[in-house]
Specification:
350 residues; five-stranded mixed β-sheet; binds 5'-O-[(R)-(carboxyoxy)(hydroxy)phosphoryl]adenosine; binds zinc ion
């Protein structure tokens, strides 16, 4: 069983061929970072056009490298949401076209589910397990009960954590993407220099909020003298990153208790995924929270934490193995596609 996976929900054009054992036969990830960099964030129109320009070639290259013909595929899986609609359409229409021409099943993959399931490709991880998804577009804590069965414990009520890194980096004069730039700068800074808030910390539940932290950074920057030094920037980066670490640790620790309550357990697996999981400082902070908790920390290698198509193909394999049927050709793309439709309803408890 070989699945062709296609990912175009944000600013990576990605293609992968994965077999049922989780062997990656070939893959391509084309980052558009350079195209969006002048704007300090992803521009949806530019992203969609870039996917159109490169996707067909990347598919041909991936198939050629693996030495696979379309006729040998088991199915074609594409991210159908959540994400930027223009980009999603490019990937999904391409996948449907291949599936239609070759009479193959088409699978519409939820990008969040793909992030959540990918670690099962790398090592045995049994359901249920806890997932902390931290990326540019998402920030949530969910229990993965099974394929297609998730319970959301908490989500962000404003910005995603990666988005906060990117916006803060812009505020303090560091480049885009902000996460790696802040992580680098923070290693040379004093984390105690600026007193920044830790929104929602100490409150019950596992929701996140980051807009107050970003605003506090803006005020702190405005209060600095005109002749700002490089050390000021380093100190701001370190103070900010430490505040984010405190928030993530507090909310994750609450979610671990909620996981245990739900499952009658005293531990389990915590999977951390999304681009922000590449941050070594945050990983170390989370590892410290897990010490003696009965939870095992699982963080996929950075290339599989950031957006890629291996996770999309793998989510396709999980669905095929679980007996899920193919999706209809009129399945739409979805800008919003919550993993837990019940928790996502207005007024529902997170
Ligand atoms: O998962 P991803 O590639 O794309 C989505 O947003 O879905 O994540 C990108 C995000 C960006 O906001 C980037 O600043 C952040 O992940 N990021 C990091 C680091 N590397 C990437 N944030 C903090 N520290 C890092 N080392
Ligand atoms: Zn993602």
């Amino acid at each position: 069983m070989v699945v062709l996976g296609i990912e175009t929900s944000c600013d990576e054009t990605a293609v992968a061929l994965v077999d049922k054992h989780g062997t990656v036969l070939a893959e391509r990830v084309l980052s558009q970072v350079a195209e969006h960099e002048p704007f300090g964030g992803v521009v949806p129109e530019i992203a969609a056009r870039s996917h159109v320009a490169h996707l067909d070639r990347l598919i041909s290259e991936t198939m050629a490298e693996a030495g696979i013909d379309f006729g040998e595929l088991d199915c074609v899986a594409a991210t159908a949401g959540p994400g930027l609609v223009g980009g999603l359409l490019v990937g999904v229409m391409t996948a449907k076209a291949i599936a239609a021409v070759r009479a193959l099943p088409f699978l519409a993959i939820n990008h969040l589910e793909a992030h959540a399931l990918l670690p099962r490709m790398l090592e045995p991880i049994a359901f249920p397990y806890l997932v902390l998804l931290i990326s540019g577009g998402h920030c949530q804590l969910v229990i993965a009960n099974d394929v297609d069965d998730y319970a959301r414990l908490g989500t962000t009520i404003d910005d995603a954590v990666g988005e906060t890194f990117d916006k803060t980096a812009r505020l303090i004069g560091l480049g885009y993407p902000g996460g790696p730039a802040i992580e680098r700068a923070a290693t040379r800074g004093d984390p105690h220099r600026f007193a920044l808030p830790r929104p929602l910390t100490g409150r019950v539940g596992a929701d996140f909020s980051f807009s107050g932290l970003k605003t506090a950074v803006r005020h702190a920057v405005a209060a600095l003298p005109q002749s700002r030094t490089e050390q000021d920037t380093f100190d701001m980066a370190a103070s900010f990153q430490t505040a984010v670490g405190d928030v993530l640790c507090n909310r994750t620790s609450n979610a671990m208790a909620m996981f245990n309550d739900c499952n009658g357990t005293s531990g389990g697996d915590l999977v951390v995924s999304g681009g922000v999981a590449a941050n070594r400082y945050l990983r170390e902070r989370l590892a410290a929270v897990l010490a003696d908790s009965g939870f095992r920390l699982i963080v996929p290698p950075p290339a599989l934490c950031t957006d890629n198509a291996v996770m999309v193909a793998w989510a396709g394999i999980e669905r095929r193995r679980g007996g899920w049927s193919a999706d209809a050709f009129d399945t739409p793309v979805r800008a919003r596609w919550p993993l837990d439709p019940v928790a996502a309803q207005p007024g529902a408890k997170a």
